[in-house]
Amino acid sequence: MPPIKNLTIDAERLWDDLMQTARIGGTAKGGICRLTLTDVDREVRDWFKARAQALGCAVTVDDMGNMFARRRGQRDDVPPIAMGSHLDTQPSGGKFDGALGVLAALEALQTLHRAGYETFAPIEVINWTNEEGSRFTPGMIASGVFAGAFTRDWAIARQDRKGESFGEALDKIGYRGGEPCGAHKLSAFFELHIEQGPYLEAGGKEIGVVTGVQAMRWYEMTVTGQDSHAGTTPMPRRHDALLGAARIVEAVNDCARQFPEAVGTVGLMEVRPGSPNVIPGEAYFTLDLRDPDATVIDRMETAIAAAAERIAGELGLSVALKNVSTQPAVEFDKGCIASVRAAVKASGYSSRDIISRAGHDAAYVARVAPTTMIFVPCRDGISHNEAEFSRKEQCSAGAQVLLQVVLDYDRQLTERHRRG
Amino acid sequence: MPPIKNLTIDAERLWDDLMQTARIGGTAKGGICRLTLTDVDREVRDWFKARAQALGCAVTVDDMGNMFARRRGQRDDVPPIAMGSHLDTQPSGGKFDGALGVLAALEALQTLHRAGYETFAPIEVINWTNEEGSRFTPGMIASGVFAGAFTRDWAIARQDRKGESFGEALDKIGYRGGEPCGAHKLSAFFELHIEQGPYLEAGGKEIGVVTGVQAMRWYEMTVTGQDSHAGTTPMPRRHDALLGAARIVEAVNDCARQFPEAVGTVGLMEVRPGSPNVIPGEAYFTLDLRDPDATVIDRMETAIAAAAERIAGELGLSVALKNVSTQPAVEFDKGCIASVRAAVKASGYSSRDIISRAGHDAAYVARVAPTTMIFVPCRDGISHNEAEFSRKEQCSAGAQVLLQVVLDYDRQLTERHRRG
């Protein structure tokens, strides 16, 4: 079958939607602060719902607040082909992370609507709740419940720093729906996202064909020494926990650089007692290790633990390393990836295969439905930052591929159903 | 003149006073939490006042809350010979830091009282307000006002973390006196203190003849990089402020170890934004440099600033170093030190000359009166810690020397006045 070429998304309309919704929670520096389940999240959800309904969609909400805007197909008994991402942001997030995936999906749906094109399967646009995890940890909690990674009751009871629960926050903004989270079956799920890294831009490629998500492991480390007087304790008699932590930070950096694809990050550190004239007796910090190959993370963990023990021994400290989270590597669905390749080819864009270095809702959804992602470049690889930026033509390329992918996948479904 | 040998302090009575007052603000682990100008500070001040009055002393209070318990001499027009220290503690302080200097002074005074010994000059015991600086910064603020290092109005307006001012706290516990701080003239001041370091214990010496206080300088340093996504930012593209800070911590340690007497400490560090999956864009930390010779601190400052610039250059960071406090080295009064040497000799204790590595009220008082200090050993050099400990005989040796010093200094004063 030749690819469908006559449907083209409207780049201006998509850009207008991105800029219009960016005002909801917009910051002075051009970013967005739209924490999940806040009043501004309700506002953008209301906008999304109204827009989808204006296109004739039925909008349903599950009991984790995930929103499904559904355009009917020829066969409404077939599970929908879904697209989407998330509308919440980091506290100082950009205009594109999450929003592009939802608004491009809406634009693709609108293109079908205006053309009067009837798909075989229903088409849905999904807005997943709390992808970022900035207000309620962990991130991707609602797609995690959808995929069975967490229980609904555990997730609903998560509290923000003010002690408000996820469930209370859902009720407060009126987005606790009736459908049990996870009951919603999908024929496939496609998530368009900015790369959040430098590779597409550096290689001059317009589209990233995402083949999987790298593995990730989180740890907490505590280095214990002895707090003592900064004036009276001679250098050779010190058991300085911060000096030990500093050497471990260096070891993490050294270790990650030994593997071409690996990253290792100490992002949070607390030093106790934390007084200018007291030698630190304790340093607590987090450790984030990632690589497409989980066995590389195993090797990094072993090397870092050994380095930490050696450093602690040299300084008369003790050290405790605790694994607190493990995300296996994800391989996306081969059929979905083939559809992306076909769509890229049909659209004429340049592309490369790429691994997602960040976590995404698609990584959980992949456990319960054929899933993949499409990446577009972002400037300097910067994300989770108000300076995050992708150009209009980069966004529209992603949206066009997303539309083509859905059409391709829908034709495959049609073929499969015809053959029985 | 032969030394006076017939007056001996009561080791048991001193120990009992140390243990009794340690209950005021006493902690479960055997330390003391007696923050300045709190209810427990009032309680120990009331105890001190009552005890001094029972020995026939007049107790006056200045407008910084410093307390002066005065025993009359033959010549009440001669400024008093004073002894003392402070009764406030760190949040998890020990039983000896400060308390020993006040209670041993009280014991010396009691010994004179019981013996009916009449000194030439009046003898005073001083309790300085807020030596520790744990509730109101900076430490030694009231002896600092006494010596003209700070203005009274500035000090009175200092606020604790709850926004209560020093002046309000003085009024609340009823210890804002009428005498202007600094108007109180002294013939001399002697402060007995635990060493808070390891040298006396290591050398098997009973008394430290303190010849001065080392110089100290405080700095704040901020390392700025770029916060970015821990998953998507490849190692070579990072500008990790914490990695830079870690290398500077190592450089501070290396630098201090190049000078035999120097110490260098990073005691407080804050990493921003402080999220496990965000590469730190900023690290803020304090730097405390000390050496008996201020020119060594100059050299350390130059070396550390150069190392920080080099490290920042390597990692694509920027770094700002700001000097926030400078304490010059203090040389104590030669006449006072001679009295301590004479007292040590008369008492038969082993001793060594020593520099104080910590700041003390005596360092400020030395600006306005002949001053020195006497040190006694403490176990493992540990201080500012609930485990801080000196043995009964170590405490009483210090008290005995303190008494002898006052008698020696008083006789010198007598001689000087006779000669006119």
Descriptive report:
2 copies of one chain form a homodimer. With 420 residues, the first copy, chain A, is α+β, with helices and mostly antiparallel strands. Chain A folds into 2 domains: 295 residues, Zn peptidases (Aminopeptidase), CATH 3.40.630.10; 113 residues, Alpha-Beta Plaits, CATH 3.30.70.360. Chain A has 12 helices and 16 strands. The radius of gyration of chain A is 23 Å and the shape is elongated. The model of chain A has no long low-confidence stretch (mean pLDDT 95). Chains A and B meet through strand 8, helix 8, strand 9, strand 11 and strand 12 of A and strand 8, helix 8, strand 9, strand 11 and strand 12 of B.
Give a quick rundown of the structure.
Chain A is an alpha+beta fold and 420 residues long. Chain A contains 12 helices and 16 strands. Chains A and B meet through β8, α8, β9, β11 and β12 of A and β8, α8, β9, β11 and β12 of B.
Distance between the termini of chain A: 19 Å
- CATH H level, superfamily name of the largest domain in chain A: Zn peptidases
Report on the biggest sheet of chain A.
Answer: 9 strands, mixed
> What's the number of domains of chain A?
2
Mean pLDDT rating of chain A: 95
Give helix and strand order of chain A, one letter per element, not per position: HHEEEHEHHHEHEEEHEEEEHEEHEHEH
Q: Total helix count of chain A?
A: 12
Tell me what the CATH architecture of the largest domain in chain A is: 3-Layer(aba) Sandwich
